[in-house]
């Protein structure tokens, strides 16, 4: 038996969404349409609970300061505590890791020429915990172990879309060489269009976001060829987070020869959550 | 050959690249120090004295005390680091982002509810002139 990637989930990870959940505001008129869009996703995750989630996200100056800035960091620890980002730690369960699978993936992916930083102690911020809250609600414990995979998208230059896509392929190969009958989901988080700084703050580009979702589904290889400047100019300086979605997409079956295009289980888009456009997709391998 | 920086032609936007990061190292590391409650208290008690513990430029210290986030960014600050100052002041991310746009808090919030700032006219520096 071998492990396999069953599905990929894509979602924005806006901190205000976490605050809305933690403060019991999800039923307020401002937030209600957003959380409604995730109701089918919560039901889907309950019905399709994986054995592990490989969660691609970025740290926002919490686990990593400017002292050390890894481009790709894989969390290999047994557990990860929610970080205090300045407003106090989110009241969410600790994240239980999967050290065996994480170590296996690290060894395989590094041998496939991607220089991962191995992290054995790390706190996780809203980039990781908000997607879990959106998909799981407020459980006493997260439904399965999670491998945090932090990507630098704060200090420019960040990794290119094509490199992220190829890294996804390497992760799939690594998972499929793991000796154990595991169902693994890979999640790509961040985005969609938003800019948090300067006089252009508040930028949203619906057309660009929708085209990104269309292309991510149907032609991810072409999407992966887009240069950074397109993200920055069209989707805002923080819209660059979307390159992380390409890691998850590259891990799906159709990124290699002979693979079948995934089934679109759910698609959702909403503006705004605080400063940000929220996008969400669930793709299942057939 | 010079480095290619096409993002310099995006209006109202500063990309936190290696040059900015080098310029803002101590400013951003000061911000990181505000993740500890004890440091937040010391900073609030005497901002100037706390800032003087860091090898920041006078301009950077002034920009922090004035809470001029656009100036902080021009001097090498990054928004995720600067957010620690906002957290210390009890400000939300939306309040911080809005403060850089020349709009009031209410105007900025309303713009976001109406769908955000349009991309039209906001792609190239020349469009803004």
Q: What percent of the residues of chain A sit in helical stretches (DSSP H or I)?
A: 25-40%
| Distance separating the two termini of chain A | 18 Å
- The structural class of chain B is mainly alpha
Provide the gyration radius of chain B in Å.
16 Å
- Helices and strands of chain A, in order, run as EHHHEEEEHEHEHEHHHHEE
Helical segment count of chain A:
10
Structural class of the secondary elements of chain A? alpha/beta
Amount of beta strand of chain B: under 5%
Spatial extent as radius of gyration of chain A: 17 Å
- At the first level of CATH, the class of chain A is Alpha Beta
Order of helices and strands of chain B: HHHHHHHHHH
Q: Give the number of domains of chain B.
A: 2
Shape of chain A: globular
Weakly predicted, low-confidence segments of chain A: none
CATH topology name of the largest domain in chain B: Protocatechuate 4,5-dioxygenase, Chain A
Characterize the largest beta sheet of chain B: strand count, sense, and whether it forms a barrel.
Answer: none
Tell me the major beta sheet of chain A.
8 strands, mixed
Q: How much of the residues of chain A is beta strand, in percent?
A: 15-25%
Greatest interface (CB-CB under 8 A), with counts per chain: A-B, 44 and 51 residues
Q: Give the fraction of residues assigned to helices of chain B.
A: 55-70%
3D structure, described in words:
- The complex is a heterodimer of chains A (286) and B (129).
- Chain A is of the alpha/beta class and 286 residues long.
- Chain A has one domain (4-284): 3-Layer(aba) Sandwich (Protocatechuate 4,5-dioxygenase, Chain B), CATH 3.40.830.10.
- Chain A has helices at residues 15-22, 32-36, 39-47, 99-111, 126-136, 161-176, 206-218, 220-224, 228-235, 243-250; strands at residues 4-11, 52-57, 72-75, 79-80, 95-96, 117-119, 146-151, 183-189, 263-273, 276-284.
- In chain A, strands 6-3-7-2-8-1-10-9 form an eight-stranded mixed beta sheet, with helices on both faces. Chain A has a two-stranded antiparallel ribbon with strand order 4-5.
- In chain A, a hairpin with a 2-residue loop joins strand 9 and strand 10.
- In chain A, helix 4 (99-111) crosses helix 6 (161-176) and helix 6 (161-176) packs parallel to helix 10 (243-250).
- The longest helix of chain A is centred in the middle third of the chain and has 16 residues, at 161-176.
- The model of chain A has no long low-confidence stretch (mean pLDDT 97).
- Chain B is mainly α and 129 residues long.
- Chain B has two domains: 16-89, Protocatechuate 4,5-dioxygenase, Chain A (Orthogonal Bundle); 92-129, no CATH class.
- Chain B contains ten helices and no strands.
- Chain B has helices at 18-23, 25-33, 37-45, 47-51, 58-65, 69-74, 79-89, 93-98, 105-113, 125-128.
- In chain B, helix 2 (25-33) packs parallel to helix 7.
- Chain B is flat and about 45 Å long.
- The model of chain B has no long low-confidence stretch (mean pLDDT 96).
């Amino acid at each position: 038996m071998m492990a396999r990637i069953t599905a990929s989930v894509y979602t924005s990870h806006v901190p205000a969404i976490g605050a809305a959940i933690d403060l019991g505001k999800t039923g307020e008129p401002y937030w209600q349409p957003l959380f409604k869009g995730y109701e089918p996703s919560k039901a889907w995750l309950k019905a399709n609970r994986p054995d592990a989630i490989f969660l691609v996200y970025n740290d926002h100056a919490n686990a990593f300061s400017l002292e050390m800035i890894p481009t790709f960091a894989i969390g290999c620890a047994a557990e990860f505590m929610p970080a205090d980002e300045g407003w106090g730690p989110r009241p969410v369960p600790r994240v239980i890791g999967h050290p065996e699978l994480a170590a296996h993936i690290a060894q395989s992916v590094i041998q496939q020429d991607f220089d991962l930083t191995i992290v054995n102690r790390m706190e996780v911020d809203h980039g990781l915990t908000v997607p879990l809250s959106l998909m799981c609600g407020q459980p006493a414990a997260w439904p399965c172990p999670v491998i945090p995979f932090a990507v630098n998208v704060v200090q420019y230059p960040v990794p290119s879309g094509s490199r992220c896509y190829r890294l996804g392929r390497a992760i799939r190969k690594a998972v499929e060489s793991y000796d154990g009958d595991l169902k693994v989901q890979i999640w790509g988080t961040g985005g969609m269009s938003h800019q948090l700084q300067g006089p252009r703050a508040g930028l949203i580009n619906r057309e660009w976001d929708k085209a990104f979702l269309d292309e991510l589904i149907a032609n991810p290889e072409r999407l992966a060829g887009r240069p950074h400047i397109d993200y920055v100019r069209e989707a805002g300086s923080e819209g660059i987070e979307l390159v992380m979605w390409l890691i998850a997409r590259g891990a799906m079956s159709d990124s290699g020869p002979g693979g079948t295009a995934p089934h679109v289980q759910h698609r959702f888009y909403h503006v705004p959550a605080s400063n940000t456009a929220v996008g969400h997709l669930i793709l299942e391998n057939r | 050959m010079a480095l290619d920086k096409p993002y310099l032609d995006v209006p109202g936007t500063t990309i936190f690249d290696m040059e900015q990061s080098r310029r803002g190292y101590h400013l951003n590391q000061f911000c990181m120090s505000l993740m500890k409650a004890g440091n937040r208290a010391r900073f609030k008690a005497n901002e100037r004295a706390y800032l003087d513990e860091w090898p920041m430029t006078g301009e950077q210290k002034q920009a922090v005390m004035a809470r001029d986030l656009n100036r902080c960014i021009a001097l090498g600050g990054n928004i995720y680091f600067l957010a620690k100052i906002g957290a210390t002041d009890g400000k939300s991310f939306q309040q911080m982002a809005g403060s850089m746009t020349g709009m009031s808090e209410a105007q900025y919030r309303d713009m976001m509810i109406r769908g955000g700032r349009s991309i039209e006219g906001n792609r190239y520096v020349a469009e803004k002139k």
